[in-house]
From TrEMBL:
InterPro entries for this protein: Methyltransf_11, SAM-dependent_MTases_sf
Domain Methyltransferase type, chain residue ranges per copy: 74-188
UniProt source species: Clytia hemisphaerica
GO molecular function, one term: S-adenosylmethionine-dependent methyltransferase activity
Protein name: Methyltransferase type 11 domain-containing protein
A UniProt-annotated Pfam family: Methyltransf_11
Top-level taxon in the UniProt lineage: Eukaryota
Amino acid sequence: MDISKIRNSFQLKFGLHFISRTIVKEYCRKMSNYMNYSEASKLYDEARVAADAENIYNIFTGLLKKPANKIDLLDIGCGTGNYSYSFMKNGLQSITIADASQEMLNCAKIKMKVFEDKVTAQDIILPNLPFPEKSFDVISCMQVLHHIDSAALKESTKEHLQREDYPNMLETLGQAYNVLKPGGVLVIDVMFEENCESFWWTRLCPIAAKAFKRLRMSQKDMIQSLEKLNFENIVCTYFPGSRLVKKEIYDEIQCIDDPKWRYYLSQYKLVEKSGELDNLIKIVKDAETSGKLKEYFDDWSEKLWTHGNHSAVFAMKPLA
């Protein structure tokens, strides 16, 4: 692939003056640098949920102003199909599910069999969206974008990241704009800084927390990137108290020393890699011994109650 052409396309779309060759080469990489989703697919549905799927569905259909049976939806980075299933059960006309992990996509196919010929499955590697222009009424991208620049960000030494440091993310947003129908809605489920800080462990593991936040574009940069692509009617919403895994699993933090429990959320890989896991386990076990673990958990999770684990961004492609 011609790296200079990719760099030039970013400069034309976003007015960027410099993008390193190392970062742009990640255009060709698969979606995740810190989690093996081929392995994760075996346990994924034991814990993960389609958090706030019905609220998200109600917002994008409200913006779209179309009946469900007239909506064609593309779910990129669909994983095992939890959100795909949740959206489709409302009676959408069709859904295309797409993921870079064949194992995750196979799980999604099984889950979506109930919808028969209304479902198309495709193996893709973001930021490439190999679909005709103006194909979909809705494109959903649920907890995906933080993966696709992870390799380059791991090598970056910049202290303060800006939107040009997320070229794959920017290219994905641009391609999503192209394959949306006029008046269509892009739905992006993400974590902004407050969402990252809603996870109980981030106050206790500053090195891992910093790496965790670096994978995510800021809310300001996300909105400005969408505006630069000509999206309009941009809406951001938090989901206070919302967890990305089942509450009964998420809240059992006394299981932090159990590798299987940690595997339910990929972010614990960052804690393991940062060298902070042993101290985190000690803090939790000491709190449990003192009988104050629930009290400490509530304190450590302050932003869970106000912002939740995730946010959703909705952006519309103009009608003309």
